[in-house]
């Protein structure tokens, strides 16, 4: 908690309110246009464009403290935990083919990204850590320790994440005809439960304890995986039956979208354009390979091709889980694979960083 509060020290609160207002405006406009994952993508696009252009409405820049995002992301984890039912857990034994496929998919994607970036003229060190297909924070940190350019690696990693977040909902809309919705589209069976004061207290405790224990035990993406674990146990044990309401998940989408958009503040345009061209190519190849693997694995794991594709799409854990929640599509399957992707990506990068140095 102290670490989260420390991120709010010295925050320009008028700028923060402006950022959230712009994000809400973008999300609202995207919702009116019936765009996929409207609240997240609308807030991301509006704040990202303003931040990258260096505009300062009312003399204020785009800002969003990491602590604010960290306070809301557990909402997604608690919601996902409500999808862990005994029936779903029983099905998990059939997922081993796709979990093993990650051992092939991730090194291929890392290698492809590295080749694309180096052939595009980027330094080898930054290309290696910028191409890690998961664990954004860990990858940038390892690259910094190795002497790499933090700004370039951060831009490459954020562009991977953001391009995937933008592309996947559009791909789903074309393939399935279903719009990846905003908070209004998030409906788990547990969402029909009217929350009592007791259940609200339990859900809050599950989220807070999940983050604390997850960080203490150094879980990957602890602010997501800790609440997922605690929420799953609480729901399986019958301690609680409901999940966070749709409006709170919608607010979370706006906060997450603004946090991604704010990362473009201060980035040099020349660097951004150069990295963007290479990141688009890398992202297109990654999604193409993910789609091919999805078709191959579909009959082996008993999941629809769209769910397998979503499980292999190299986006963020929180964002991909939001899409799965919105589509009511194999939420646990998708989440488990993205957790495994992050862990394996970081382990491979750690093992190879001595070689790349």
TrEMBL record:
Signal peptide: none annotated. The chain crosses the membrane at residues 12-33, 39-58, 70-89, 95-117, 161-184, 190-212, 219-240, 246-266, 278-298, 304-325. The keyword Nucleotide-binding does not apply. Keywords: Membrane, Transmembrane, Transmembrane helix. This is AbrB family transcriptional regulator. It comes from Paragemmobacter ruber.
